[in-house]
Model the fold of this input.
Amino acid sequence: MKYIFIFLILLFFSLNLQAKEYKYIERIKDCYTDIFWKIRSEKYWTVLETKHAQETYTTTNDSHLNALEWHLVNTTDKTDILAKRRKDLITISGVFKSKPIERSIKIDKDPWYQPMSFSLSKLAKSRGKAITFWTLNPMDLKPYKMKALNYGKETINVNGKEIKTYKIKVILTGFRSMFWHAFYWYRVDDNALVQYKGADGPPTSPITVINLVEESF
Done:
């Protein structure tokens, strides 16, 4: 029993040593909010834990950063849901805005990115030109088919530092592509997200800017 206990302790510390933590600052006009990411790499999957205001979520991803499960908790609007992908179906269960929910969403073979800000680093890493994917809107859980375009390398200023990045543009697919877009910048060295700019809502919404401010490994 003693050796089993020691093994479990060593395993716990080895897993935590692999964790990467990032702090971002979100700015919408004059409102600032902290966002915290904790990324834990395990043998068969990668787990992202996010805290943003009253909202927390945990996403389990496969080796290609495609979402397998997404657990969303929002204490303000009384939400606690779990979404799972099985082949071309996403099932959602739990409580959403105080109401019980059981829903199945039919998608196609394209990947599910939740959140897209994390999974899109795959496109930067692959040096690919474009990819289509699915994502769920946390506000209403509606599925959206998206397209990401790799604009290549760009040097940007983040908190007074010049950083070499890959620039990714995200748009809605089809005719809706003219109504919304956003940009993500991923660091060339390790594909970490360092900046985001876009309207988190209709075209008339104010621009949201997110910058990386701290990180630890």
Observations:
- The domain at 20-57+110-216 is CATH 2.50.20 (outer membrane lipoprotein receptor (LolB), chain A).
